[in-house]
Design a protein that fits this description.
extended; 7 helices; mainly alpha
């Protein structure tokens, strides 16, 4: 199994990119070394899940608090970071133990991709916690300091939100270790974040039915999408979660689409281009006109010019008329 090399951002960042935090987030949280998806349809389902989860989450807190609860969102972001910092290495460690126990490969073979995924995890958690800290300290720095911190905090907030969208798709680039790790980690994380609310009965001020619906909606949806993704990886590409990455074939790229037909040249009337090639050459097999003889039609016969006269030209000049001399006059 091979792993992609190259720089972290692939050289896509410029000084102007920092004016748009979502461009920076795309380069930082979806690095160039993350393998491309094998199934675009699953990617579409992931995007739907992320958007639906965000709408549901913001909608619940807006309904409970009677408005948008920014402080509540910051607290939830900090809690989610701590959960990710604990759950992600634990889940990957369990899979490494199972792969090592199978005897198909060793943990040392996965050292490089594991370190890259760990760096991405720490980078996202550090960015999220740093954003929370900036907003919490903004009110204690005076008017000028508060204004400056607000500008930096807003940039960081957009950066982290866009990064969370990227991370939810690749789940810290763990597909570079094993293609089945992202759906597995997404499932484990969402369930472990939902179970404490069910156990403690914290339904966020909603009724029992609505609280259970909103709490279990995310993990059930994520689990269904994860099972679909892993099922397609197994049936279409032979990739199973129980297989050590070392025994898997090199990760294939996405299937290329059909080659587009080039547009006609600008000089072609109505897009029509006449047949190209020598009009006096040999026509293709099956021509209704048969196969004419080869060569220049204006060359030497018999395969030359059709206007060349035959061997006897009726218009050629004749010798002068010389009648035979009469016999001498011999009168009788």
């Amino acid at each position: 199994m091979t792993y992609p090399q190259g720089s972290w951002t692939g050289g896509t960042l410029t000084a102007r990119s920092f004016l748009k935090p979502h461009h920076v987030a795309r380069a930082v949280f979806h690095p160039a070394w993350i393998p491309q998806s094998l199934d675009p349809s699953v990617d579409a389902l992931k995007k739907v899940r992320v958007i639906a989860g965000a709408v549901a989450g913001f909608g619940v807190y807006t309904f409970v608090e009677g408005g948008f609860a920014f402080d509540e969102m910051l607290d939830n972001a900090a809690t989610a970071c701590l959960v990710l910092l604990f759950i992600t290495p634990l889940t990957v460690g369990v899979m490494l133990y199972l792969w090592q126990r199978s005897g198909a490969g060793t943990v040392a073979q996965l050292k490089e991709p594991l370190l890259r995924s760990l760096k991405l995890l720490l980078l996202f958690i550090g960015s999220a916690l740093g954003t929370v800290l900036i907003f919490q300290l903004g009110g204690s720095l005076g008017m000028l300091g508060t204004l400056l911190v607000s500008v930096v905090g807003l940039w960081m907030a957009f950066f982290v939100i866009a990064g969370a969208y990227r991370i939810s798709g690749n789940f810290f680039g763990t597909a570079v270790v094993h293609r089945c790790l992202p759906p597995l980690l997404a499932t484990v994380t969402t369930w472990l974040m939902a179970v404490p609310d069910l156990v403690t009965g914290d339904l966020h001020g909603l009724s029992l039915a609505m609280g259970v619906f909103f709490i279990l909606g995310a993990p059930v949806t994520v689990t269904a999408i994860a099972m679909l993704e892993m099922g397609r990886l197994k049936s279409r590409y032979g990739i199973r979660l129980a297989d050590h990455p070392a025994v898997l074939a090199p990760m294939p790229g996405p299937t290329p689409g059909p080659t587009p037909t080039p547009p006609p040249p600008s000089y072609a009337p109505n897009g029509f281009v006449p047949p190209q090639g020598n009009p006096y050459g040999t026509p293709p097999q099956g021509s209704p006109y048969g196969t004419p003889p080869q060569g220049n039609p204006y060359g030497t016969p018999p395969y030359g010019s059709p206007y060349t006269p035959g061997p006897q030209n009726p218009y050629a000049p004749q010798p002068p008329y010389n009648p035979p001399a009469p016999p001498p006059y011999n009168p009788q």
